[in-house]
Structure formats: C-alpha cells, structure tokens
Design a protein that fits this description.
- Helix content is 7%, strand content 39%.
- Strands 1, 2, 5, 6 and 7 form a five-stranded mixed β-sheet that branches. A four-stranded antiparallel β-sheet has the order 3-4-9-8, with no helix packed on it.
- It has 153 residues and is mainly beta.
- A hairpin with a 2-residue loop joins strand 5 (56-61) and strand 6 (64-71).
Amino acid sequence: MLMRTDPFREMDRIVQQLSGTSGTWSKPSVMPMDAYREGEEYVIAFDLPGVTPEAIDIDVERNMLTVKAERRPAAKNDTVQMELSERPLGVFSRQVMLADTLDTERIQADYEAGVLTLRIPIAERAKPRKISIGSTGSTGSTGSADGRKQISG
C-alpha cells in the first residue's frame, strides 16, 4: 500500500545522528515511522516526541503524503549551562507515496504521547466484491443485450 520515495533517507538519518546536525527547512531530518494494515484501514505512526501539535503540518497532494514537524530548543535563561544535548532539534519531514486503493479524502490524524497516528481508510473500489455471471441461449429464455438472462413467460 505504501512506497518509499527515497531509499537513502535512512542513511541520511544515521549520518545526521553521528554528526550531530539538525534538520533545516531546506534539508529536513527523517522521522521514524511504522506502517501497517489494521482491518479496513491503513495506519501510519510517526515518532515526534517533544513536538507540539501546532508544529506539525500534514499535506496530501494527489497520492503523496507529506508530514513536516519542527522541534525547537527549550527556552533557557542565562543561568543555564548545557552539559549534554542529544535530543535532535530542527525540522523533520517524511514523504510517503500512497496507493490508489486508499481513500485520501478521509484521513484521520491523532497525536498522543509524541506519536502522530494517521488512519487512512481503504477505498470502496479497492474492496473485494462479487461479480454475477450472465448467460445467454438457454431454452425458455432469451439473452438481453447486456448478457443477463431474461425469462419469457
């Protein structure tokens, strides 16, 4: 149902972690995600600890889902001396190509405990359905133009 758009994003994330660089608007950091099917919907969960819901932007254009978020440093006064800073700051982004079988008009988004969860219903046209078989040319009946059996009385 999903397709990764850039196979090198994971490598970029590792390099950013090792070098200690933060994401910028022109080159955002990658945010980790899980994606799975649950019943009649597809679920995508993004890890965004420490990000306020107001700092999250979710867009869908055609079948491209884009999630961007920004985590800023906590406001500190002049008496604070930073001893260790390992939590990543800056801009985070992820793009996911959604399949045509998903209903992008009805995406639901929830944010709880630092996890952004998107639920995308599977489109009605993608669900399995029964197809009836028409027949023609049997005794006592005539076939219609659309191939369905008509009984003459």
